[in-house]
Specification:
The protein contains 40 helices and eight strands. Helix 28 packs antiparallel against helix 29.
């Protein structure tokens, strides 16, 4: 029954494909000058239909032979050729005469006569051999090779095959006498896919067509199978999403068209290897416990079993998604125990290869919570610092809270994932869960790593002040080897603690070391270290250094795409403060808006972090002439600063910023427009008003108008008086001191 169903589907596919014009392929075939053309792809890619369409457009006679098992007798194949040529321009009689012997001498008599007869012909033809994969005998393949070598000028040999025929294709390629159209060429484009679906009378939207193309990867047979089910579906979008390799019609088609002739040993290989997303000889040998996987993969790829090469060296492969899904469904029905063991071996192999995604994925698929927890915790530094926190959250959600609560590695991973999202209370909940579970762990390197991670959680949240922050780093540093990526966190927390305690040089050394360590492996932590260094430089009036550190931090954020992490709020706030001070008003305003948006996403996070960020934002807003926003930030910081413990520097920064706002309130600084602020920043320079106009891309009259407005709002009548008023209001820095 399944065999008949598959044959019907194959016929339906060809009939539907015949309705789809493929001009890009037909143009290649019409314009080809190569003596031999090979259409090589798995079943269902429309090879026979394309030959028919080519024949309909080409003025030359097409001599089409559908190859069958009987053509493995070379005499039978030559006879078929003689009969085909007879209808156009008969071959020399001695070819047929050579076949009359009881045992024709194919190599020494038949083939030389056939070669001579082909070369003597005058009328160009196309000899089309369909289903060449059926030819296995060396003598019959020699007949095909003779056709390829000796067809007269203007004639072509066209072969359609599911596998690569053994007829010295390498030599034909080297001599540029071979045109090849393979699976990737015969894959349907979006337009061709749409034409096929339209031909089936199924109306679907463009996005649904895109989804269908992704699911089928342009395989015409799969497109037909999917399209034929959409007509009866009430919701085509849902039907496309559910279409997979375990669909009964897909299973029947693949089983009969692709797997029918596969040996039991090779079928076992396919079933078990289907659990792997990417295939290579070494990984398949390790997971399937065999030694010939590289050869099997190469053979399967060349036999067009929908095993697709990923490189030109035959090292890496993948299954077509529908074939993989079908095989996985078959494996699942056959032996669940084997599936789990395969996943565990695959997880171990990918862990050794350093691919966390695949190692974790196989551990989760195997249902091994302990292994998944250990792998996820080991992967946290890379995921957390490279903008992939969403991957950690997705793995944890897939496992479920119940599983996370039973594993010290999973619960500590959840802790750091929530810290990265700025969710303090949830992070503390999972840290408490992990701490209880770690206490039950036997002594091991794994436990040491977990204990260090828990210590750093305490340091990051720093609920008890800067001293406690630094104290939490001490055990973590003692537990971790020097090359461990968590040392970047240690440097950041130790540096922040020293800075808050007023130990500038020690802070600078730690933060610089953190920025160095994080430059490659932890871009988000490097950005935070650089932001702290920029604050330190600004505190000392070293604005060139502050501007350099801010530029490095922002460049790292932009390069790695971590700008949407709430933890990046401080870096944007410091950038806004420094850029506003340096007169880059527009850039400062953009950074300020981003920092405010990210800050709002934090939930009871580390008090030191939120207070630092709000103070920097208040200073930036004050510089940008928005005292109301600055006051709102300071009010929040004033309420939160009590939670920071012993951060004396924050108390001083808060007081200084409040004093600056009071001075600004006494002046008319808050009435300046953004355009006037831009001009004000340039008044202390040596530039004349016309030069300021040129530098600002404004007209001299516009600059004069802004300057008069500034004078009026400040109640002054000269450039120098305006500068001094702006400095008293905190809108401009004091002039650098002159050494005596």
């Amino acid at each position: 029954m399944a065999d008949r169903a598959a044959r019907k589907i194959e016929g339906d596919v060809e009939e539907a494909s015949a309705l789809v014009a493929r001009p890009r392929l037909l143009r290649q075939l019409r314009e080809s000058r190569e003596r031999t053309v090979l259409l090589c792809a798995p079943s269902g890619y429309g090879k026979s239909v394309l030959l028919d369409q080519w024949a309909a457009e080409d003025p030359r006679p097409f001599l089409t032979i559908l190859v069958g098992a009987h053509h493995n007798d070379a005499a039978g194949l030559v006879t078929a050729l003689v009969e085909a040529f007879a209808a156009v321009e008969p071959l020399a009689p001695d070819v047929a005469d050579a076949l009359a012997a009881p045992q024709p001498d194919i190599e020494r008599v038949v083939l030389p006569r056939l070669a001579r007869a082909l070369a003597e012909r005058e009328r160009p033809v196309v000899v089309a051999l369909d289903e060449v994969e059926r030819l296995e005998s060396p003598d019959s393949l020699a007949v095909v090779a003779t056709l390829a070598e000796h067809l007269a000028g203007g004639s072509q040999l066209a072969m359609a095959s599911r596998t690569e025929p053994a007829v010295h294709l390498a030599r034909l390629r080297a001599n540029r006498r071979l045109l090849e159209l393979r699976r990737e060429d015969l894959t349907m484009t979006k337009a061709e896919c749409g034409a096929l679906i339209d031909g089936l009378g199924v109306p679907i939207r463009p996005r649904q067509l895109d989804a269908l193309l992704v699911r089928t990867e342009g395989w015409p047979a799969a497109l037909y199978l999917a399209g034929s089910t959409l007509g009866a579906a009430g919701d085509p979008g849902a039907a496309i999403a559910q279409f997979a390799g375990d669909d009964r019609r897909v299973v029947d088609y693949i089983r009969e068209e692709l797997l029918f002739s596969v040996s039991p040993r090779r079928l076992d290989f396919l079933l078990r290897a289907s659990l792997l997303e990417r295939l290579s000889g070494p990984v398949c040998d390790a997971v399937l416990e065999r030694e010939d996987s590289a050869t099997v993969l190469r053979d399967l790829s060349r036999s067009n079993m929908l095993v697709i090469p990923l490189d030109r060296r035959d090292e890496w492969f993948r299954f077509h998604p529908l074939l993989r899904e079908m095989l996985q469904a078959e494996l699942r029905r056959s032996d669940l125990g084997a599936e789990r063991d395969l996943h565990l071996r695959a997880s171990a192999w990918w862990e050794a290869a350093g691919d966390w995604d695949l190692a974790i994925g196989h551990a989760v698929a195997a249902g091994d919570t302990a292994r998944a927890g250990a792998l996820l915790w080991a992967a946290v530094p890379e995921y957390m610092t490279r903008g992939r926190n969403a991957s950690l959250v997705a793995w944890l959600e897939r496992l479920g809270e119940a599983a996370v609560a039973t594993s010290p590695g999973l619960s500590l991973t959840a802790t750091w994932a929530q810290l990265t999202l700025g969710c303090g209370p949830v992070a503390e909940h999972w840290a408490a869960v992990s701490r209880r579970l770690v206490e039950a762990e036997p002594p091991s390197e794994y436990r040491v790593s977990l204990e260090a991670g828990l210590a750093l959680v305490d340091g990051a949240l720093a609920r008890d002040g800067a001293g406690a922050m630094r104290a939490a780093v001490v055990p973590a540093r003692a537990l971790l080897p020097d090359e461990n990526p968590w040392h970047t966190v240690c440097c950041l927390l130790d540096g922040v603690g020293l800075l808050l305690e007023g130990e500038r040089e020690g802070a600078r050394a730690q933060l610089a070391d953190g920025a160095r360590r994080g430059s490659v492996g932890a871009p988000n932590l490097q950005a935070l270290c650089l932001a702290q260094l920029a604050m330190l430089a600004a505190e000392e009036g070293a604005w060139d250094d502050a501007e350099r550190d801010v530029a490095r931090a922002r460049a790292q954020i932009d390069r790695t795409g971590i700008g949407e992490y709430p933890m990046s709020a401080l870096a944007f706030a410091v950038a806004a403060h420094v850029r506003a001070t340096r007169g880059a008003v527009d850039a400062a305003a953009a950074d300020l808006a981003t920092a405010v948006r990210l800050l709002e996403q934090l939930d009871a996070f580390a008090p030191w972090y939120e207070v630092e960020t709000r103070i920097m934002l208040a200073r930036a807003a004050a510089r940008l002439g928005d005292p109301q926003a600055a006051r709102a930030m300071l009010d929040r910081a004033s309420r939160e600063i009590a939670l920071t413990g012993d951060g004396t520097l924050l108390d001083r920064w808060l007081a200084e910023t409040e004093e600056r706002l009071e001075r600004q309130a006494e002046s008319a600084a808050g009435q300046l427009t953004v355009a006037e602020l831009r001009i004000l920043r340039q008044l202390p320079s040596h530039l004349s008003f016309p030069q300021i106009a040129a530098a600002s891309h404004l007209s001299p009259n516009t600059v004069k108008t802004h300057v008069r407005s500034i004078y009026g709002k400040f109640g002054v009548s000269s450039r120098q008086d305006a500068i001094e008023h702006a400095r008293r209001a905190g809108l401009l820095d004091a002039p650098p001191s002159v050494p005596t």
